[in-house]
Amino acid sequence: MREAIILANTDGTPSKILFDIPADDSDPDYNFNSLGYWSIKPQAELTPLTEAGTQILGSATSNIPQIVFDGSLLGVNGGAGLIIDNTTDVVIKDIAVVNFQGNTQLTGIGIHITGASATGNQIVSCYIGVNPQTKLAAPNQRAGVQIDGNAYANRIGSANLPNVISGNGSNGSAGNGVLLLNSTKNAIQGNFIGVVPVSYTHLDVYKRQEKISLLRVGIVVLRSINLVIMPPRVSTPSELSLIHICAWKKFASVLMPLLIQYLYKSLV
């Protein structure tokens, strides 16, 4: 995976990173799991994505990713799973990102979008902080997704391509679903936050996996402006969660009606 990212960064043209995987465990180098997914377990943080227009396109069965980026071999300060650094129009789709540890501003993050030139990037149809097959928490310690460094106009999810952002937070540390820090005009739309869909054909049915922790927050907004945050796909929730907004700076976000009622905390 590292070599694919390096090549995409240096070939001077938008690239697609695809996964040619077998249908079974015929090649053990792919870390095939009997549940039907393949794990990529880097031993050092992957190279950041820096080339405009790069697409990482995983594969999915019934909208459930089969490619898992797993940070469990990186230790307590394992960095981030995937980093989009000062570039534009990157697409990450049909990937799961789990088990990245650390609680500094740069570690313990599933997907990190950063830099004033980071714009137009999209994260869609991903599982972040939860195992896509077992539906159990596989936490990124600090945040599922973090957008910072004056990054602007990026999109997390869409009405038709929602992410599942649940289960983040471990080792006694708060795990935010989405953390917006010093960023502008980013959109969060249609995601499953703190819940896991049982079936994409029955979008009003969800399966809770873990006890809710009071430290976990679905979306944190810190020193960020002009955001568009639309309700996640949650029906008749039984517990109230929070969108936590602090350090207002000419805050002009658009919060769709009843957002607070429809936002769950991330799972433990």
Please explain how this structure is put together:
- The protein is globular.
- 3% of the residues lie in helices and 28% in strands.
- By secondary structure, the chain is mainly beta.
- It has one domain (1-268).
- It has one helix at 2-10; strands at residues 16-17, 38-40, 55-57, 60-61, 64-65, 67-70, 80-85, 91-93, 95-98, 109-114, 122-124, 127-128, 143-148, 155-156, 164-165, 176-181, 187-188, 192-193, 196-197, 206-207, 219-222, 228-229, 243-246, 254-255.
- Strands 1-3-8-11-14-17-22-24 form an eight-stranded parallel beta sheet, with helices on one face. It has a six-stranded parallel beta sheet with strand order 2-6-9-12-15-18, with no helix packed on it. The chain has a six-stranded parallel beta sheet with strand order 7-10-13-16-21-23, with no helix packed on it.
- It has one helix and 24 strands.
- The two termini are 29 Å apart.
- A hairpin with an 8-residue loop joins strand 19 (196-197) and strand 20 (206-207).
Number of helices: 1
Query: Globular, elongated, flat, extended or rod-shaped: what is the shape?
Result: globular
Specify the biggest β-sheet: 8 strands, parallel
Alpha-beta content class = mainly beta
Which parts are unreliable, with pLDDT below 50 for 5 consecutive residues or more?
200-215, 234-242, 244-268
Helix and strand run: HEEEEEEEEEEEEEEEEEEEEEEEE
Q: For the record, give the distance between the C-alpha atoms at the N and C termini, rounded to a whole number.
A: 29 Å
Assess the beta-strand content as a share of residues: 25-35%
Count of individual domains: 1
Helix content: under 10%
| Oligomeric state, counting identical vs distinct chains | single chain
Count of strand segments: 24
With strands numbered from the N-terminus, the spatial order across the biggest sheet is: 1-3-8-11-14-17-22-24
